[in-house]
Design a protein that fits this description.
By secondary structure, the chain is α+β, with helices and mostly antiparallel strands. 15% of the residues lie in helices and 36% in strands. The chain has helices at residues 4-8, 28-31, 80-87; strands at 12-18, 40-45, 56-59, 70-73, 92-102, 105-114. Strands 1-6-5-2-3-4 form a six-stranded antiparallel beta sheet, with helices on one face. The protein is globular. The mean pLDDT is 92. Residues 15-90 form the HIRAN domain. Keywords: Hydrolase, Metal-binding.
Length: 116
């Protein structure tokens, strides 16, 4: 049985979902081969999004990093809690669980993680 110190280091899975909008990200055909299952991903709020007040972007690296690839969004209707936690300054990331092409759509399954 793990002790309390080791179990508190494990992040809490808040959400499992698809990344929305990957078919609108033109660069994904080029970058998909470099995406690996288990890869950490970053989440960033887009509060000024005119379509979704709770928009949360999914990225491969910080937006200021030249290696950053913007993959898409958390799905509308499933993103409010994550957006509120990000707005409150909580440490949230994501992890890639699965990737596959379905015709011209890149199917990306992720987990959203809350870190202590």
């Amino acid at each position: 049985m793990p002790d309390a110190a080791s179990s508190s280091a494990e992040p809490l899975v808040l959400l499992e979902c698809l990344v929305a909008g990957t078919s609108h990200r033109d660069n994904l055909v080029q970058y998909e081969p470099g995406l690996t299952v288990g890869q950490p991903l970053l989440l960033s709020r887009e509060p000024a999004n005119k379509y979704d007040d709770w928009a949360v972007q999914v990225h491969t690296a910080p937006a200021t990093d030249p290696a950053n690839v913007w993959l898409g969004y958390l799905p509308e209707g499933r993103n409010e809690t994550v957006a509120r936690l990000l707005d409150a300054g909580k440490n949230l990331t994501a992890r890639l669980n699965h990737k596959s092409w379905e015709s011209d759509w890149l199917h990306l399954d992720i987990e959203v993680l809350l870190h202590e």
